[in-house]
Amino acid sequence: MLNIIRYTFYDLLRSRWSIFYMLFFMLTSTALLFLSNDLSSAIISLMNILLILAPLVGTIFGVIFYYNSSDFTELLLAHPLKRSTIFLGQLYGLCISLSLSLVLGLGIPFLFYGLLYSDAIFDFLILLVDGVVLTFIFVGLAYIIALKNDNKVKGFGYALLMWLIFAILYDGMLLVIMMQFQDYPLDTFSLVSTVLNPIDLSRILILLKLDISALLGYTGALYQKFFGTVVGISISFTLLAIWSLLPSGLVLRIATSKDF
Amino acid sequence: MTIFITSLCVQAQITVCTTCTISSIQQGIDLATAYDTVFVEEGVYFEYNIAIGKPLTILGENGAIIDGQKQGTILKVQTTNATISGLTLRHVGLSHTEEYAAVHVSNTKHFTLNRLTVEDAFFGFLIEGSSKGRITNNKLSGESEMEFYSGNGIHAWKSKELVITENEIRNLRDGIYLEFVDNSEVVNNLSENNIRYGLHFMFSNNNAYSNNTFTKNGAGVAVMFSKFIEMKDNHFLNNWGTASFGLLLKEIYDAEITGNTFDENTVAIAVEGSSRITYQHNKLSANGWGVKMSGGCYSNKFLSNAFSNNSFDVSFNSRLNDNEFTGNYWSTYSGYDLNKDGIGDVPHRPVKLFSYVVNKTPESIVLLRSFFVDLINFTENVAPVFTPVDLIDNSPLMRVPS
Description:
The complex is a heterodimer of chains A (260) and B (402).
Chain A: H1 2-14, H2 17-36, H3 39-68, H4 70-77, H5 83-113, H6 121-148, H7 152-180, H8 187-196, H9 198-209, H10 217-228, H11 230-257
Chain B: H1 2-10, E1 13-16, H2 25-31, E2 37-40, E3 43-46, E4 50-52, E5 57-60, E6 64-67, E7 75-77, E8 83-85, E9 88-90, E10 101-106, E11 112-114, E12 117-121, E13 123-128, E14 134-136, E15 139-142, E16 154-160, E17 163-165, E18 168-170, E19 176-182, E20 185-187, E21 190-192, E22 197-202, E23 208-210, E24 213-215, E25 219-224, E26 230-232, E27 235-237, E28 245-250, E29 256-258, E30 261-263, E31 267-272, E32 278-280, E33 283-285, E34 289-294, E35 298-303, E36 306-308, E37 312-316, E38 322-326, E39 329-330, H3 353-360, H4 371-382
Parallel strand pairs in B: 1-2, 2-5, 3-6, 4-7, 5-8, 6-9, 7-10, 8-11, 9-12, 10-13, 11-14, 12-15, 13-16, 14-17, 15-18, 16-19, 17-20, 18-21, 19-22, 20-23, 21-24, 22-25, 23-26, 24-27, 25-28, 26-29, 27-30, 28-31, 29-32, 30-33, 31-34, 32-35, 33-36, 34-37, 35-38, 36-39
């Protein structure tokens, strides 16, 4: 499996896309740091970009990579290799490559800016963890969609729809529901529904760390109470972990039974 | 002539010290005649309910401490022309029914409280029905934790022409509380870590406060049911919490709010039912809400203020607007300035749709900074449906005004 991970990794490096991805994050974070002159607000702006971009790039890369390497995958399948080795190897190779671009692209400018001497380092780490987890989740989901659909156009469409739902439509639905049922207590509902969507969960984790909690008023107090406790933190991180492992489990199940 | 000389000679000094024949302050006061000075030497005096019934100057040496042993009020001023200076007053009594204070001034004129240190205060200075007082250079601190079991730092009721300057007030309920107090000035004070308000006006007209700093209070300043208040060059910092404000205005009219700095408050200025207020040259940075208006607010003017990096610059809960926003700087402004005159060519709408939604459904704030919210804000900005159409800054500044 390590060999396949390594191969995938070098393949992506050769195609220069992971380099572009890294350079993009490097440029944006440098620009933000110099424009805002403040680590905290730069982290908030980066969060906005990251929460949209990491899932989107993960989704698109996942689908494209699967379709592009399908010939090679079939070649590998002819060899005496376990299917789990082949598919998980490719999946993790892609995830690791993208995550590395993200971590280096964000990390290097912040390091030069003096992150280590600042108390924002913990917030920044959460941002990085969120970015990596989101990459794993969305690459995995895209892989599932690609595995299920041999028609490239259909697969691509479904993948984009999936991103659209998680990144935008889900929040829209949430807002509509909250406004419709504003006469009822909505605290638990909003808490549960945000925890279920990995993008929302990542956003809330960063926002709470950046002390916007007070702004959230009464609801914020509830959130702070939930996420401030060991139970709340472990629940949210467990959920993130489940979210990032679930797709690869499904990939495994689908891939082992799929007829190539 | 003789009368004049004798009256000069009569102005004597009485010294009180723990080892002297006059070993208590009350004794010293009783022995003194009007316009004498009672000089209190270094030492701890265990006394309370000390009544000052004639015009005196009570001067404390460095290290002169009156300990009230938590029994009640320490000093009671019941005369005109009293001056109390240089003492340390500690352990004021605590009570649910009585308003015990370090210094209680009632129904008098021309009093001065100067260079006093109050530790472990219940109420610090309690001033009733008095006028022309000076309260300067004092340090007051308490150990307040609960609102219902704590008192105010400087509490004035039904008084006139007070001057409150250079005081430091910490850990009390309200730092300074003025009720039915007119024509007074509050200048250069520091009020921090108070559980309710840093400075609180109720039914007090024609007052001014300037150059004060309010940090980490439940709310920085609350001005309620008052007219003609001038608020100038104050700093409202870090009043941060689930129900905190920098400045809270409720039912006030004809005020001037000029040159103040608001940094990192949950709500910088919360306004309820207040009209004819001019906001000029204020700087609001990194607050949750910049200006949060609710109830009927009419004919207010916002001129040359700077709104930078607030989560919501202006929040407004009605579709009708009668307030003027002109020439302010908005960090969220996305227009351009082709003729380079420093004024943006496209008008700016400071009220975002999301702030309207949050007003209606507070729980929806969990969607803050999500992509969907940015999208609906953008669409609303292009074609306003829910937010007031005429709440608009027609000449937004391109740079922070200096």
